[in-house]
Write a structure and sequence with these properties.
alpha+beta, four-stranded antiparallel β-sheet, elongated
Length: about 140
Amino acid sequence: MLQPWPDQRADTSTVEAEVITALRLKGNWVVKGYMQVLTTVPSADEGVALAQSITSERLAAGVQIIGPIRSLYWWQGSLRDEQEWQLVIKTTQPLLSELESHIKANHSYETPEIVATEIAAGSTEYLDWISEETRRTDAL
């Protein structure tokens, strides 16, 4: 039988706050609200064009283009083996919906990969940079 942690309390918000504080104290880490989004494209040129449009619209602080990579996947009943480039997009949670719409509108695939993962923790300076660079001047 699993035993509770010695400091486990009924008030989980207090425990959560203590964990966040501990993370900040133990490594200057910040959590919540930051996302890493993945998509793939069929060429380096399309990757650069998409990355430039995403960053120029301030939908992300930065985009890394990795590739070429080899992707094996099912599409329309057949197994594909293709060369692709992966975009790793750093953004904030409030921008996810707009980022998704932008990717779909500017992507050559009928069904582009759009997978968002919450950044569980990161350095204060790095996450502050994401916040600052995704701040929209049109929203001010």
